[in-house]
Write a structure and sequence with these properties.
3-stranded antiparallel beta sheet; 4-stranded mixed beta sheet
Length: 291
């Protein structure tokens, strides 16, 4: 446990959290807007600013130590940050020069059906905070690029949005699309191709850190195993890496859009509709194919 004396946490308790979160939010919005505008140089400049931002570090440490479900679960180093003093030490550590990535601790937890187990990789608390920082820099760029009907592991989106999207396609007495293909992507996290995923990141300034996390290895039952593919399901940035790797499924399936005269976009009448979402932390795909 990373603990400290109770009276050492006054600085943490008086942090201007609203101001820090507002700064992170503004930077995310600027990265999103620059991506939409096609200003690649500005995107990278803003991402570097986000990765240097102390507000981003504070918000990220708070996220993984106070808000995330696994905040009390240690990684291979056995440490969690519980006290204000421990959180401040974690902020100071992260603001220093980049450090090596620790291997993740693998545990197996029951799936929703209670019959099978799924592997969960738990990074050390410092790596979780670092991943949250990197996600704040990388996610808004890709949110500006992701496909319209991708709902899994995205901020402000979920399964209910996917259900609504499906309903809008099949509703009515005589819908044009009458067949649904339900495709389950089994073991999607376990089989992410590292080189392919990293190639999609281009010149993202945190690309080296992400590579180290992907290649850090796994410790299970006291034995170290190297990781040649996949991303740990307990990793803060893993869902985003998975979505980046899956980006382009609509194009591969032949989905086409056109701009409506009243604004917005709509799927071409003779094209399929592809809806991707996540169920029980396992990515799934629904593709409705026009007949």
């Amino acid at each position: 446990m990373a603990n400290g004396p109770k009276d050492a946490g006054l600085e943490w308790d008086v942090v201007d959290w609203r101001g820090a979160e507002d700064e992170v939010r503004r930077l995310r919005q600027r990265i999103f807007a620059a991506t939409r505008a096609g200003d690649h140089k500005r995107v990278r400049s803003l991402q570097k600013l986000m990765l240097r931002s102390r507000s981003n570090t504070l918000v990220s440490v708070r996220q993984v130590t106070e808000r995330n479900a696994g905040r009390l679960t240690p990684g291979v180093d056995g440490q969690v940050a519980l006290t204000p003093a421990a959180k401040l030490r974690l902020v100071a550590e992260i603001q220093r020069s980049p450090r090596r990535a620790w291997p993740v601790r693998r545990v197996h937890i029951p799936k929703a059906d209670g019959k099978k187990l799924r592997p969960l990789g738990i990074p050390v608390i410092a790596d979780r905070a670092q991943q949250a920082r990197a996600r704040n820099a990388l996610e808004p760029e890709w949110e500006a690029r992701f496909e319209p009907k991708s709902y899994g592991f995205r901020p402000g989106r979920g399964c209910h949005d996917a259900i609504e999207a499906i309903y809008q396609v099949v509703k009515g007495k005589d819908p044009k699309r009458q067949w649904i293909l339900d495709a389950d992507l089994q073991g999607a996290f376990d089989h992410i191709d590292h080189n392919f995923a990293l190639s999609l990141l281009g010149s993202f300034p945190g690309r080296g850190m992400i590579r180290r996390w992907l290649k850090a290895g796994v410790v299970e039952d006291g034995r170290f195993v190297s990781t040649e593919e996949g991303a740990p399901q307990g990793g803060v940035i893993s869902p985003l890496i998975l979505n980046i790797g899956l980006h382009g499924m609509e194009t591969a399936a032949g989905v086409r859009y056109f701009k409506r005269s009243r604004g917005g976009i709509e799927t071409a009448p003779d094209a399929p509709v592809l809806v991707r979402y996540a169920d029980d932390r396992a990515p799934r795909t629904l593709m409705e194919v026009a007949m």
